[in-house]
């Protein structure tokens, strides 16, 4: 590993350079690291991995046993973008972008969050990428349904034990 660099700096660098082996080394070391560390722009390792299409790094960040406290919805400082905003903007390989978006959504990324320009991730998708747009629409609808079911469950709890029609 690099002399003088902290594990947090190494996490950011590894995700910028698609070095999942370095991530695994850091996560397996007993030394401390913050999986949600940020650079001066407020980007986390997950922001960089998603933005640059580093699929293996995204997988390690989302699945390694020592990354349980990973925040999948952090907003950076400049654009107020989440990693999901960054992932949908990756256009080099649409299948990689789709896979990263899918992994982020499965991990709990919120497709309804808006950036500083008021844009949700779906609004940043290349208009020709119908598959990714459809996937995000379904995820957003599913999240809305889940929220409405939670509201209904809360309403049911306040009744006299009978479900409302």
Structure description:
By secondary structure, this protein is mainly alpha-helical. The chain has one domain: Ankyrin repeat-containing domain (Serine Threonine Protein Phosphatase 5, Tetratricopeptide repeat, Alpha Horseshoe). It is 50% helix and 0% strand. The protein is built from 7 helices and no strands. The chain is globular, with a radius of gyration of 18 Å. 30% of the residues are buried. Mean pLDDT is 88; it is low at 157-165. It comes from Dispira parvispora.
- For the record, give the distance between the C-alpha atoms at the N and C termini, rounded to a whole number: 62 Å
Rounded to an integer in angstroms, the radius of gyration calculated over CA atoms is: 18 Å
CATH level 4 superfamily: Ankyrin repeat-containing domain
CATH architecture: Alpha Horseshoe
What does the overall shape look like? globular
Number of strands: 0
Strand percentage lies at under 5%
Q: Give the total of domains.
A: 1
Q: Tell me about the biggest sheet?
A: none
Mean pLDDT: 88
Q: Report the helical percentage.
A: 40-55%
GO molecular function: ubiquitin-protein transferase activity
Protein name: Ankyrin
Keywords: ANK repeat, Repeat
Pfam family, one: Ank_2
């Amino acid at each position: 590993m690099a002399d003088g660099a902290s594990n947090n700096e190494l996490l950011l660098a590894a995700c910028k350079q698609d070095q999942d082996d370095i991530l695994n080394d850091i996560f397996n070391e007993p030394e401390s690291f913050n999986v949600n560390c940020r650079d001066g722009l407020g980007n986390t390792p997950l922001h960089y991995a998603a933005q640059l299409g580093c699929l293996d790094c995204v997988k390690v960040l989302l699945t390694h046993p020592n990354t349980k406290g990973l925040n999948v919805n952090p907003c950076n400082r400049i654009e107020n973008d989440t990693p999901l905003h960054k992932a949908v903007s990756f256009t080099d390989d649409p299948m990689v972008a789709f896979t990263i978006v899918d992994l982020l959504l499965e991990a709990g990324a919120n497709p309804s969050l808006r950036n500083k320009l008021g844009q949700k991730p779906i609004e940043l998708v290349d208009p020709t990428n119908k598959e990714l747009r459809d996937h995000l629409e379904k995820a957003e609808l599913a999240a809305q349904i889940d929220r409405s079911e939670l509201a209904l469950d809360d309403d049911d709890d306040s009744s006299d034990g009978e479900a409302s029609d």
